[in-house]
Design a protein that fits this description.
The complex is a heterodimer of chains A (about 160) and B (about 375). Helix content of chain A is about 25%, strand content about 40%. Chain A is an alpha+beta fold and about 160 residues long. Chain A has a single domain (about 20-160), classed as Protein Transport Mog1p, Chain A (3-Layer(aba) Sandwich). The longest helix of chain A has 17 residues, at about 1-20. The longest helix of chain B is centred in the last third of the chain and has 38 residues, at about 250-290. Classes of the chains: A alpha+beta (about 160), B mainly alpha (about 375). The interface of A and B includes residues 57 and 114 of A.
């Protein structure tokens, strides 16, 4: 019993380590820099987000970072992004926003959501921050129940984000 | 219970239990503090279903009901030990697959690959543990079926608590509605096609391997392996995305899809149960044959003992005609007459003192019953 557990634990550790290549940091408008976590690759093939944004994927989870000039509050930016995201779902619900610190010392607003879209039941996290005329938003989206496995990577990318 | 404590397997079980209790206990405490109403409702709903289900499974073995202590070990093994180990290994296995499958394939097949392998393995380990604790208690195919089903029932109950509470935590609306809705889908509609069925299948194969000693070792191992694969297959089919499109169309098509996925396995285990019961009845007839027609067991009494429905009818008639005390005495008499058959299987001679003592017990009960008006 314990042997099977240790075997799978080693397999998981090996599998995670063996593919842990790290993409170089990506520069977005207004000096914002995203540092992908080890093991994440470009998601341009599944979600082309266009200029001013970048997307990464790993194991079914996709994250998108977008940066642009923005003069409103983090809360307002979050609500704008939320309405855009929600419009893509057939049914959608989100929890109340909470405070978060990203990029070292930048106050941000975050919420988690779930919903049903054409591709099935999905869950995700939306984070928005506004500082000195720059707005940054991060959307992480995954099939239901699978985001938590890579939540550590998402948190790492948020904390290592550079917002001038 | 005292005989269990001298077995190393029992102490291994206790060690696993202590570790599992820390994991599951901590999780349950979290549920109670965050969602107390939903947690209590979950327990209430599950108790209302699982206790009767447990009694039905327990009574299925009508000639030799298993000891309550071992039944408790089976349920606890499923609900705590197997669930904890399976939760950990499922997580590791999924991490491994996440790195080797595309997101779409992983999403569709990840659970179907991982859960049957890990969960059936750890539930099956419970059968081995019980066998090592009390080899003599697994002496028929029915015993394996009962212990396997009980392990599955424990697993299913605790897993359902997790599902109910996750639904309650995620809902934007009523927690009660989320719990009741999930209960309806997982227990009322799909409850038959779950761990009780899977591990019951495995238990049947395991019991075949350890009890059918007149068969070749290769055949016994082959049958045990076949039933382990069947248990795995039933679980795999259930978790697979097959018929998912049908499930999403309407409530009727949802029920149709899960019926197609689960009913063949349910029918199969029902047939196995009937076969096992028939074998038990034949064994009972063979063992008790020497006593039929004596002052401890008459021919009509044998006919009544052979079927649970006839025993219950006799008890009802006795209660109606002679009152509850006579019914209680008759019930004890029936039990002791069945125990006499079991004793025949454990001793070499029909003159054995243990048999004679059992006959005396029956005669005494018969006299007491005769005095109750």
């Amino acid at each position: 019993m314990v042997g099977w557990m240790l075997f799978l634990m080693s397999l998981a550790a090996f599998a995670s380590g063996s593919v842990a290549k790290t993409l170089p940091p990506v520069s977005l408008p207004r000096g914002v820099v995203v540092k992908p976590a080890p093991g994440w690759s470009s998601a341009a093939d599944v979600w082309n987000v266009g200029a001013g944004a970048v997307s990464f994927k790993r194991s079914g989870v996709v994250v998108v970072f977008v940066a642009d000039a923005y003069s409103g509050t983090s809360d307002a930016l979050l609500q704008e992004q939320l309405s855009q995201v929600g419009a893509q779902f057939d049914s959608f619900r989100s929890l109340a926003p909470s405070n978060l610190t990203i990029a070292g010392d930048v106050g941000a607003k975050s919420l988690i959501f779930s919903g049903t879209a054409q591709s099935g039941q999905l869950e995700g996290e939306l984070v928005a921050a506004s500082r000195q005329g720059t707005g940054v938003a991060m959307l992480a989206i995954a099939p239901m129940g699978q985001l938590h496995a890579l939540q550590g990577d998402v948190d790492e990318m948020l904390s290592t984000l550079v917002i001038p | 219970m005292r005989s269990l404590t001298v077995k190393p397997a029992f102490w291994l079980f206790i060690a696993f239990l202590a570790g599992s209790f820390l994991v599951i206990g901590g999780e349950q405490l979290g549920y109670v503090s965050m969602l107390p109403g939903a947690w209590f409702l979950s327990l209430l709903l599950l108790a209302a279903t699982m206790i009767p289900a447990g009694i039905i499974i327990y009574r299925f073995d009508q000639f030799e009901p298993e000891p309550a202590s071992l039944i408790a070990v089976a349920v606890i093994w499923g609900g705590l030990v197997a669930l904890t180990f399976a939760a950990l290994t499922n997580s590791y296995f999924l991490t491994f697959l996440q790195n080797h499958l595309t997101g779409k394939t992983f999403n569709a097949w990840g659970a179907a690959i991982v859960a049957p392998i890990d969960e059936e393995f750890y539930k099956g380990a419970g059968l081995v543990a019980i066998y090592l604790m009390a080899r003599r208690e697994i002496d028929g195919l029915m015993d394996g079926l009962v212990y396997g089903a009980m392990i599955g029932l424990g697993f299913q109950a605790m897993e359902n608590v997790q599902y109910f509470l996750h639904a309650a935590a995620q809902t934007g609306g009523s927690q009660v509605g989320a719990v009741v809705g999930t209960y309806f889908v997982r227990v009322v509609i799909a409850g038959l096609y779950s761990h009780t069925l899977f591990t019951g299948l495995m238990g049947f194969g395991f019991a075949y391997a350890v009890t059918q000693r007149d068969k070749s070792r290769a055949r016994r191992i082959g049958v045990a392996t076949l039933f382990a694969v069947l248990a795995w297959a039933a679980h795999f089919v259930w978790d697979s995305p097959w018929l998912e499109s049908l499930m999403g169309q309407s409530s009727g098509s949802f029920v149709l899809a899960i019926t197609i996925k689960g009913l063949p396995f349910v029918l199969f285990i029902v047939i196995l149960g009937l076969v096992a019961r028939r074998r038990e009845r034949r064994a009972f007839d063979r063992l008790i044959a020497a006593e039929v027609g004596t002052d401890v067991l008459s021919e009509p009494e044998l006919r009544i003992l052979e079927k649970g429905s006839r025993r219950r009818a006799a008890l009802r008639a006795t209660r109606r005609n002679r009152g509850p005390q006579a019914r209680a005495l008759l019930k004890r008499l029936q039990r002791e007459q069945m125990n006499l058959a079991l004793l025949h299987g454990k001793v070499d001679s029909i003159e054995h003192p243990a048999l004679e003592a059992q006959r005396q017990k029956i005669r005494l009960l018969r006299r007491q019953l005769a005095t109750v008006s």
